[in-house]
Specification:
The chain is α/β, with parallel strands linked by helices and 424 residues long. The protein folds into two domains: 172 residues, no CATH class; 195 residues, 3-Layer(aba) Sandwich (Rossmann fold), CATH 3.40.50. 57% of the residues lie in helices and 11% in strands. The chain is built from 16 helices and nine strands. The strands form two sheets. It has a seven-stranded mixed beta sheet, with helices on both faces. A two-stranded antiparallel ribbon has the order 8-9. Strand 3 and strand 4 form a beta hairpin. The two termini are 38 Å apart.
């Protein structure tokens, strides 16, 4: 057999396989007509609250969630780390923390139903008269809870604070019991020891002697207890320092090195600059932070190689997202009401969603495409919901055409962004 014959036969086999694949796709489209399938998805938005809770519980069990245990004195920068990792305002974070035990409080981001990050903050650590043994016992119990979440200890210490005996004592107890849980030392509030002639942050990392000496001393004090140390200075906009989150990339990279791959990837997605640019509107900017988090969740949950299997999960995810956004804009919604809003503003995107689900039949790359698409669609839906709620807040009737336009533009940009994240 000649090389030409071999090439011809190989081409024939490739054409034959393509023909079989195309025929299968055509038959599936007949079995699941786009308009009928889209209507079925619309019906999913009316899912009962009990069924929605079941789906969210299943989705929650599959999320790469990170539990960050924040340890440090008051005003040491613990809440600032939460702001830096989530992009949410200080006011919202303050409202989001809830009492967890006598000496800790807890905040789940973006929501309790579907958290990518769970922050547990110690209360009163370092205060005179505080029961150190009780705090240590509560933290040990927190770490002892069995779940599949990745855990990490984050110690926050101001760069000019060397009264660290209590923090070191508790850290020793935790590391002795759970040496496998990584520990990060975050040294904060650098601007408090800048030279008088320095009015702004220097290039990162700082090479100032006023920072180098205390930073080295703190690293030495926690030697053997911390796996990594990082310098950060997260201020408020009104403080006048640029950037506001000085050292955020270093913090991100340190967490990425210490956490498992899936959890590290989720943090990198949350901190992608294209997802959190200020839009000049407080509510829209904060809303986009939440939308970015839900889009990252969608990409994780959609990577299942079974056509239509992920649609109920994504629907529940998007209903949950709209509920969270509604609360941000002052609209308290039941899951059923949130589902109705999703159905009202989604429009023709649902038909596209069904068409994209069919690509999962293509071996090898179908699920990656579906995951990227699900993240982009979730992001676009969140952007549309922000416009919807923004109109209501302004006393205007929501404009369906403008919402569709915003969704279309957001979808195209987000699709490129999440597609790049899934490239090998």
């Amino acid at each position: 057999m000649t090389e030409l014959d071999a090439e011809t036969r190989g081409s024939d086999r490739s054409n034959q396989r393509f023909g079989v694949l195309q025929g299968a796709k055509n038959r599936l489209q007949k079995l699941f007509p786009v308009d009928r399938a889209a209507q079925k998805v619309v019906d999913l938005f009316s899912v009962s609250d009990d069924r929605l809770a079941e789906i969210l519980a299943e989705a929650r069990s599959r999320l790469p969630t990170t539990e960050a245990l924040l340890m440090g004195k008051p005003q040491a920068g613990k809440s600032s780390i939460v702001r830096g990792l989530t992009g949410v305002s200080a006011e919202i974070i303050g409202q989001g923390f809830r009492p967890h035990t006598q000496n800790t409080q807890r905040y789940a981001y973006p929501s309790e139903d579907l958290p990518l990050l769970i922050f547990t903050d110690t209360v009163g650590l370092g205060d005179i008269g505080q029961n150190t043994e009780a705090i240590a016992a509560e933290l040990l119990a927190q770490l002892q809870q069995e779940n599949r979440h990745a855990k990490i200890l984050i110690l926050t210490v101001k760069i000019n604070d060397f009264a660290i005996a209590t923090l070191r004592e508790i850290t020793e107890k935790l590391r002795q019991k759970y040496p496998h849980i990584p520990c990060l030392l975050a040294v904060t509030c650098l601007h408090e020891i800048y030279p008088p002639d320095l009015a702004d942050h220097p290039p990162y990392p700082p090479t100032l002697e006023t920072c180098d000496r205390p930073y080295s001393a703190l690293k030495e004090a926690f030697a053997g207890l911390c796996d990594r140390a990082v310098l950060i200075d997260f201020t408020l906009e009104e403080d006048g320092y640029t950037p506001v989150f000085y050292g955020l990339e270093a913090l991100r990279d340190a967490l990425g090195d210490l956490l498992p791959e899936a959890e590290a990837q989720a943090i990198y997605q949350l901190l992608d600059e294209t997802g959190g640019k200020a839009l000049g509107d407080l509510y829209r900017d904060v809303g986009r932070r939440y939308v970015t988090a839900f889009a990252a969740i969608a990409a994780t949950l959609a990577a299942v190689p079974l056509p239509f299997a992920t649609m109920p999960v994504l629907t529940a995810l998007q209903v949950s997202m709209v509920g969270v956004l509604g609360k941000l804009y002052g609209q308290i919604l039941t899951p059923s009401q949130a589902g109705g809003i999703v159905s009202a503003i989604a429009g023709g995107f649902l038909a596209q969603a069904i068409g994209r689900e069919l690509i999962k039949f293509v071996p090898g790359f179908g699920s990656i495409i579906a995951a990227s698409w699900a993240a982009a669609y979730t992001f676009a839906l969140g952007e549309g919901a922000c416009v919807y709620f923004g109109d209501l807040m302004g006393g205007k009737k929501p404009d369906p055409a403008r919402i569709q336009e915003v969704m279309g533009e957001s979808f195209q940009k987000a699709k490129e962004r999440f597609s790049r994240k899934n490239e090998p």
